[in-house]
């Protein structure tokens, strides 16, 4: 029986569900591949476009910043007007943006076209996750599907450096954007043919003020961090943007709770697993953004490797992510998120310490050990983030919940590139870039190690019995008033009209 307001009339069979999962994973592939391919191309782009370190930061952060700003809007809009409609629009805009990026005549145009890409990307990942959530209703089957979803990130990390390095060395950096065109077109055609339309029974109303506050907060904070090394941390310009970011944050905290249907429902954060997943996502993806940024510049600018050889050097990290992501999904489905999160935190922290304290860059065996540890940690962290964030919420708000988790990832990656880049720029200021790189990157690696430690601590604190109980209480508060508010018995599995059950949170 379908929920009120749902377009989908009958549950898809097993084969159709797997096809829908494959289509959604195609969208994740082009978005994830775009970032990993771009990192390998940064030195070539910097040379041709005569860009600084800050300019390279903006080619990454312009994308992740717009993405983070619009993800929640895209999720709630998809719940309201139809998930397939928004998904199709995202594929069209992202593919068009990729074409424009390949034609960019200068750095400013490239940054602008990356923002166009991001507008399309904001309509893909959270909406695709919402489609998956509503397609795979069994908790264990959903956890496995999310494990496959996480595995696609591993595929993009494995293929990205190799594909990007090969394209940059043989054709040029502009060709890295051509990869998105055939995949985007194929995903579009398959979506129109096979993905059913669905929407939430009672979606949220638009919240333009909240959306503007989010854009202002993320934009002003990122600008202040990236431009501070050049302008000075105490310059009036940087202090003004920092003050604007703080005012926007205060505005969100004051304004959003007063709305009946806010863009960000702060009640979500009463759930310890959901709050933990948000913090872990920010820390893990901040570490990823900084890791890729540092290593790409080091391997090509300091070691003098070609783009392809640099991609091959990073293959151990990508391969471990590819192997561990689906394993993590299975562990979440069978044993819960605690073990994958603990393994992820230990491995990522150990990788950061290896570079920060033992200068792993200077020894190839230590370098590869650091890559293996980071790939293991990052491969383990993605599935528990997604599963915990989505499963702890009623299906009616799946798009918003998935968008919050996706937004946390993009905020983390944005801040990781901004902070690590700023630390690196400050360290190499006044010295030879190649000679001062390793010493300047020491504080950056300690920051990455701290992010891994945070994953470990927060994962341990938000995956126990108390955390699960807080998630159940939060889910009960979030259900529609007209629905049955009787607590779900401990032995009753989750049903579409009940929000969550114990299997979702194990």
Characterise the protein shown here.
The chain folds into 2 domains: 14-196 and 259-505, Up-down Bundle (Growth Hormone, Chain: A); 208-258. The chain contains 19 helices and no strands. Residues 1-9 and 481-506 have low confidence and may be disordered. The chain has helices at 14-49, 53-81, 83-102, 107-121, 125-135, 139-170, 180-194, 208-231, 236-255, 272-302, 307-313, 315-335, 338-358, 364-391, 398-428, 433-440, 442-461, 465-478, 502-505. The two termini are 27 Å apart. By secondary structure, it is mainly alpha-helical.
Question: Topology of this structure?
Answer:
Elements: H1 14-49, H2 53-81, H3 83-102, H4 107-121, H5 125-135, H6 139-170, H7 180-194, H8 208-231, H9 236-255, H10 272-302, H11 307-313, H12 315-335, H13 338-358, H14 364-391, H15 398-428, H16 433-440, H17 442-461, H18 465-478, H19 502-505
Helix pairs in contact: 1-2, 1-5, 1-6, 1-7, 1-10, 1-11, 2-3, 2-4, 2-5, 2-8, 2-15, 3-4, 3-5, 3-7, 5-15, 6-11, 6-12, 6-14, 8-9, 8-15, 10-14, 10-15, 10-17, 12-14, 13-14, 13-17, 14-15, 15-16, 15-17
